[in-house]
What does this fold into?
Amino acid sequence: VSAVRDDVLAKIRGDGLRAYVVWTKILDDDDLAAARKAAASIHDPRVVQLWDGDAELARTLGESLRIPVREPGDRGFGLAWDVYLLYPALATWREPAPRPAFWMQQLQQLETSAIPLLDGDVLRGEIVAALPR
Amino acid sequence: VVNVRPLALAAALLAACASSGASAPRVAAAPAAAATSDPIPLETGFPALRARFDADAARARLLVLASPT
It folds into this structure.
């Protein structure tokens, strides 16, 4: 998330971008207090921050993005976290969750040849190209 | 009409929720935290994100999911 703050938000001016940062319960120590603490590190009026306390959004997006499970033998799809999803202007929500036009990730179980590893500079370039004219 | 600050109202709602034992909102939205010690205000429900997403359709949007720890 620091890459988004430092490489994207700090370097893209204007109101053509909105960001939603969803703090989701993935690890044992993830709770609302931890989410509040993490949220306090981002100060940008274009950012809306959320707490996904039962990982509902992470689960829904995991299915939508077809994220592989972490453990061999597990069924279904993995949770979407450490993912950075870009939607262009005019895209609307599609149930159960919209697929992004471009995305990056930092998940062990995803091949970087399929979905690129997060790179703040690359992400910023994609966002700039998607900004409304 | 009582003029209640949104941050204070949200904090009061959270406190009431916690003291009553009610379950926490599944997905709660908050504007970017101001540089104050106020707790982050919360809105209830996954639908809030969907509504924000569509309301912001004139803009490019970046959705990030992360562990807070």
Notes: The first helix of chain A runs from residue 2 to 9. The mean pLDDT of chain A is 93. Chain A touches chain B through 65 residues (CB under 8 Å).
